[in-house]
């Protein structure tokens, strides 16, 4: 699969959307899984439009409500979020690991890279891809998960910013010179009816095998092919890569904000918020990178943010992970 990474980085590919979104906010909110709860159980990093808040009523079209976005496509007011990575020092305290942008996408502040794939990296495929609708939301992965059972949830130990393989199901066990990339791929088959489901996953079906490989045909229960959404989050572990800082027993010093130091609980959340039919137009176009989507400058994207609704420190050396009760 090595060729995929080479292709992704060098070919003038047309078959997908790939763009950066700067950090919008880092705080303990989870409008999808714990709507209205201030604070929610664990810290998230959020990118996208500024209609993000603790409740996010599904009847509100955030594509109309938001007034700015941290994404380089200026018509994308969607919100995308994941847990946050912390480093646990020998003395048991925690420090948040910072994020950095994909080098191809300019000097965005933190954030992540977002993909909407139609088929794979080298072709648009030949099937209709139906854009998500206002009110649509979904999650992939789960903080409760303790098994290596989700092909969409992987990690890459970055030797440099362009490393893409191999992928592992667990946190890398050795220091990674350019940090750790968390890869999060969503299912691409929708039931065509429900904008959400009680567990935020049952309205979707995964036929993918991980990576940016074409997903299999959608089943009758979930017949509508939607874009294959994926996040790449680059966690800059550089300042913690000195092994003399790691636990003496050699165990993993990196931990998700919900206390998982293995990595199987990695998860991603999505609330659709493209303005009007912009995403559908992009999916219908055959040359996506010149699809007529509006863009904005890095400076404009970096300017958009939301005020934290939770008054707590998530950034200095912390004696416990916010919301996780006991120190580990
Ligand atoms: C949160 O956003 C929704 C719409 O997205 C809005 O109806 C609600 O008033 C907002 N709540 C707060 C506390 O700002
Ligand atoms: C714990 O260790 C970290 C990293 O070595 C250090 O920066 C921090 O000051 C220490 N905190 C305490 C309370 O000793
Ligand atoms: C990663 O962190 C190191 C140490 O804090 C810093 O010097 C470096 O500039 C960061 N790299 C990126 C790409 O932000």
Automatic annotation (TrEMBL):
Residues 1-15 form the signal peptide. InterPro entries: DUF1996. The keyword Signal applies. Keywords: Signal. The lineage of its organism: Eukaryota, Fungi, Dikarya, Ascomycota, Pezizomycotina. This is DUF1996 domain-containing protein. Pfam families: DUF1996. Residues 30-274 form the DUF1996 domain. The keyword Signal applies.
């Amino acid at each position: 699969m090595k060729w995929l990474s080479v292709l992704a980085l060098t070919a003038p590919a047309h078959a997908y959307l790939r763009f950066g979104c700067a950090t919008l906010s880092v705080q303990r909110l989870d409008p999808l899984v714990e709507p209205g709860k201030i604070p929610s159980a664990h810290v998230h990093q959020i990118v996208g439009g500024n209609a993000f808040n603790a409740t996010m009523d599904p009847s509100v079209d955030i594509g109309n409500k938001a007034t700015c976005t941290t994404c380089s496509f200026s018509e994308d007011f969607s919100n995308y979020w994941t847990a946050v990575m912390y480093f646990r020092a020998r003395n048991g305290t925690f420090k948040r690991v910072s994020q950095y942008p994909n080098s191809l996408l300019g000097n965005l502040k933190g954030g992540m890279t977002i993909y909407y794939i139609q088929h794979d990296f080298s072709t648009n495929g030949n099937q209709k891809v139906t854009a998500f609708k206002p009110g649509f939301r979904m999650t992939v992965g789960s903080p409760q998960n303790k098994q290596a059972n989700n092909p969409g949830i992987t990690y890459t130990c970055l030797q440099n910013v362009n490393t893409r393989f191999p992928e592992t199901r667990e946190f890398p066990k050795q220091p990674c010179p350019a940090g750790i990339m968390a890869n999060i791929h969503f299912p691409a088959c929708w039931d065509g009816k429900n904008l959400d489901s009680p567990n935020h996953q049952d309205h979707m079906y995964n036929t993918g095998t991980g990576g940016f490989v074409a997903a299999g045909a959608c089943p009758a229960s979930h017949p509508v092919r939607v874009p294959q959404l994926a996040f790449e989050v680059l966690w800059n572990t550089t300042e913690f890569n000195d092994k003399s800082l790691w636990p003496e027993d050699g165990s993993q010093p990196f931990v998700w904000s919900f206390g998982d130091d293995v990595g199987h609980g990695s998860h991603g959340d999505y609330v659709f918020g493209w303005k009007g039919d912009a995403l559908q137009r992009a999916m219908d176009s055959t040359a996506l990178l010149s699809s007529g989507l509006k863009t904005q400058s890095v400076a404009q994207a970096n300017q958009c943010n939301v005020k934290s609704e939770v008054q707590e420190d998530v950034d200095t050396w912390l004696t416990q992970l916010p919301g996780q009760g006991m120190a580990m």
